[in-house]
Fold this protein.
Amino acid sequence: MITSGMSLAQTNPTQVVEDFKVSSTTQSGKQYPQVNSEGRVRTSILAPQALKVQIDIGAKKYDMVKDEKGVWTGESAPQDEGFHYYQLNIDGASVPDPGSLYFYGASRAGSGIEIPAKDQDFYANRNVPHGQLIETHYFSTTTKSVRRVYIYTPPGYDKSKKKRYPVLYLQHGMGEDETGWGAQGRANLIMDNLIAEGKITPFIIVMENGSVNFGGGPRTPRPATGAPAQGGAPGQAAQGQVAQQGPPAQAAAQGQAAPQDTTRRRPGGGMGGMNVAGQFERILFDDLIPYVESNYRVIGDQAHRAMAGLSMGGMQTKAIAIANPDKFSYLGLFSGGTIAPSEIKDLESFKKKTKVVFMSFGGREGGSSRIAGVADEWNKAGIKGVSYVSPLTAHEWQSWRRSLNEFAQLIFKN
Amino acid sequence: MITSGMSLAQTNPTQVVEDFKVSSTTQSGKQYPQVNSEGRVRTSILAPQALKVQIDIGAKKYDMVKDEKGVWTGESAPQDEGFHYYQLNIDGASVPDPGSLYFYGASRAGSGIEIPAKDQDFYANRNVPHGQLIETHYFSTTTKSVRRVYIYTPPGYDKSKKKRYPVLYLQHGMGEDETGWGAQGRANLIMDNLIAEGKITPFIIVMENGSVNFGGGPRTPRPATGAPAQGGAPGQAAQGQVAQQGPPAQAAAQGQAAPQDTTRRRPGGGMGGMNVAGQFERILFDDLIPYVESNYRVIGDQAHRAMAGLSMGGMQTKAIAIANPDKFSYLGLFSGGTIAPSEIKDLESFKKKTKVVFMSFGGREGGSSRIAGVADEWNKAGIKGVSYVSPLTAHEWQSWRRSLNEFAQLIFKN
């Protein structure tokens, strides 16, 4: 099937290593997509009448080659270890690869692929006690709609009827939603493994949708039906009713990202002067935290409350923490810029309640050279500052999985 | 954009009603797919170089029409109310619609669409207290792998620390998996609404993957890595490691269904003489029930244990209940054939423990005319027999949502 692909590869200076295996994010029973030891993605699709078929990954398109049966096959250049969004292009149509699993990110539900990593054991689905990844719904007085939230509870949560836990509010990036940290981030598996190894104080994680109206951004009138602004996610129907025609509230914001791994091309975010916290700050304090604290066994004080996020979620963490210095004791910005002591109005007061400020970047991101210095500023100011640089990764989920793995080991220790 | 589609429609004897609205299963921010008041599905895709683009739904393909900008638009014939799998065909390639949400069924993750139904309020996401749809993992000694399971717990489960609940083991159909009842079936929302209206005794639902080795079917050697045979599902990565090359264990079984709404074309199942319970029976009794009973607050006796399933899941319910008459008190077969008193070896003993036998079909399925008579046989034999026919639906999720809604009101009442 791949003879013509082979001959093409042989004309290239770089030989493709022929040890492709079905990916862990390939659908059950499907033979493609596959990944080789170099991190190349190879996929294959029957499209007998098509004129041109490409794999679109990492902001590059790679031509596939057709065989005599009408099956197109081709592969990408080597990709970084970890998770990547991608798609196929068939005669000008950008579509998901019918062989892959689907994930919500880059402002669309679509294909994702896992490149095996040397350190993948920390997010593998191992035979250890497993916590719960809970999908539930609550009514937000801010948006006047039923909103979906994901909550991770540690192994044993349902057995210990009295024990209460610290809680981390953990945010996704732009163009992603509340499913991201569970599906692409594997946050639940990272936690299960850390807990099994006794490396962390077990805590609850709350994951909601931060892609709501931004204070300084364009506003689209909300539909009158009360349908939630957050869209559905892979495999989840959004509402029993048909949504009103017209873009939902966050469409304007999401529309800025094309359906590709665009985040790689915009290290630092490009959020300009927008008030990134915006409506989400009200949802968080007026609706979400009260809901969580009255429905889950969390310890509802600042000392046992953390906030972190990736990219836009890190910027939201910063904006919300600065505006609300009495709410969180641990802050994490994953590829989300820096927060420095000079940005805090009342540093002496901040110092009494804030225990750790954590900043990370992928080693291939520009910001990675700046965070060690800023972390030092925190240490000098009397608050523990920690920086982390993820080796050989960019603005992508492998950086954020590793960041969560590091951050989790630092918080709720005292 | 749809001018050419319009003129095509006008040449048809049937006029298409132009009241299309964005579907509830359309991705946030996308304008297509849409549905009109007739239940027609209209979608649209940019494919400038394509020669032919079709919507493939309900086992029929509908030609789409290209405009001068290279955007293809077209619509299907009216579909039944409720949920349907579908896909696009671009120059011979069958691919998901990039505008829709994705669901696992018909042996693939792919597009699904919701046609608004007159009775949709019973599965709508309403402002009522919501239970939890929990994703968790446990180790199966039968498959020697970590398996994923979904568990619904009613509102207040985490607050009442002592209350124990009855439990329903609820199975999907062929080519589907453990995500089906939550995503397409909306089982959690059906339960939340029934509980809010005081119509049922609150209970827990356990949803696992029944598509494992069938006793009488072909067996493919399991990979030696211990990777789970059940594949991933929409939005969920399966394993941190790369699966071994070659089809997973259930590929042979799943391969029988093409990636379409094939279930419609096979009312009654077509499982032949296969032992449909197979390995799942061992998983259920050796691994799953013990796991659930030791980790969730269920009442672990026959009187508080029910089993039901759709299509293949109904056949599994029947096979397992007949072979294990001491395990379940309530049985539900949704489009899964019939179970008659004559099929029970020791009817007198069965009668003491079995409270309700429920059988349902969509009104457009052949089996719908048979179940009332079989229910009567149960009533005459001294066990409550109930039949239900879903109006104007076929072998599809709307029949099964309604069946769950009916069945839930009959069980755990005494």
Chain A has a mean pLDDT of 86.
